[in-house]
Specification:
Elements (H helix, E strand, L loop, with lengths): L1 H6 L1 H5 L1 H8 L7 H13 L4 H17 L8 H11 L15 E6 L6 H14 L5 E4 L6 H14 L3 E2 L7 H14 L4 E5 L8 H17 L6 E7 L4 H13 L4 E5 L9 H8 L4 E5 L7 E3 L2 H6 L5 H4 L1
Parallel strand pairs: 1-4, 1-5, 2-3, 2-4, 5-6, 6-7
Antiparallel strand pairs: 7-8
Length: 305
């Protein structure tokens, strides 16, 4: 819980802080509802999620005969929490080798997230992990991944920049099987999500991994930049059209003053959020907990004093 509260401090003191301030002791009136709805949308909670939250709040206020705005505080927590679901367990067990495909646009924190995920699976979950540098279009991406691999003690299979990504994935899959690795994490190119070539490339990578390991990839995780707000929703929709996205990792939530886009991703799009990034350190990628996340958006009693 501690890392959630510290990591979400900017969100808690900005938009959601304004919501808390608004929910003072004033009487509930039409302006209260209008202001609350506007603030939720500004916090990137999403139009559909905001509408559902407002409906639940209005119903509860009427049911419990609430008169003052401060009575909505706990009700808002409950309504927001009701829009989130616990993510399913990652499908990376029960077979000799599981493959996780990582997708997302450049700049989303994808490469760093792969290293953090590899470190977590390797050290906390006690799984033997290998990484494939499938983003062969950027030499920097390959070098960064190799550097991170050395840092977290996870082997990285790479080839020269500009080489065929599917060939790299094939080599890495064969190597992972030969070395009795449990999980292979595959990086992919992060060019614009509207690029047709990227769609073809992802299809090739999926096909190649599926030929070597039955049912692969077993997870396709989309990395989204938490600071990009509604643009992240557009990216999620586009990537879901191109490839069967099974879940999401939201990065940089420690550096955004909003954070509400997590609700929109989970509720509006129905995509499970598996992990969130709450800092720069390798251990700052944490499993998503809806209750911890929502509680971290609001001040606790000690902070109010």
């Amino acid at each position: 819980m501690g890392i959630f509260r510290s990591g979400m401090s900017k969100t808690r003191t900005s938009f959601f802080g304004r919501i808390a301030q608004m929910l003072g002791s004033n009487q509930i009136d039409d302006d209260t509802w209008d202001d609350l709805e506007a603030l939720l949308i500004q916090a990137d909670v999403g139009v559909k999620t905001t509408a559902d939250v407002m409906k639940e709040l209005r119903n509860r206020a009427a049911r419990e005969n609430m008169k003052r705005a401060d009575q909505l505080h706990l009700a808002l927590r409950d309504a927001l929490l009701s829009t989130l679901k616990d993510p399913p367990v990652l499908n990376v067990s029960g077979r000799p080798l599981s493959i996780i495909l990582i997708v997302g646009v450049n700049g989303s924190g994808k490469t760093t997230t792969i290293a953090k995920l590899a470190n977590r699976l390797n050290n906390i979950n006690q799984r033997k992990v290998m990484v494939a540098a499938g983003d062969t279009f950027r030499a920097a991406a390959i070098e960064q991944l190799q550097t991170w691999g050395e840092r977290v003690n996870v082997p990285v299979i790479a080839n020269k920049p500009g080489s065929d990504p599917a060939a790299v994935v094939y080599d890495a899959t064969v190597a992972a099987k030969a070395r009795n690795r449990d999980i292979l994490i595959v990086d992919t190119a992060g060019r614009l999500h509207t690029n047709y070539n990227l769609m073809e490339e992802l299809a090739k990578i999926k096909a190649v991994s599926g030929r070597v390991v039955e049912g692969a990839p077993h997870e396709v995780l989309l990395v989204l930049d938490g600071t990009s707000g509604q643009n992240a929703l557009t990216q999620a929709e586009k990537f879901r059209e191109m490839v069967d996205v099974t879940g999401v990792i939201v990065t940089k939530l420690d550096s955004t003053a909003k954070g509400g886009m997590v609700f929109a991703i989970n509720h509006d799009l129905g995509l499970p959020v598996h992990y969130i990034g709450l800092g720069e350190r390798v251990g700052d990628l944490v499993p998503f907990r809806p209750d911890f996340f929502v509680d971290s958006l609001f001040e606790d009693e000690d902070e109010k004093k």
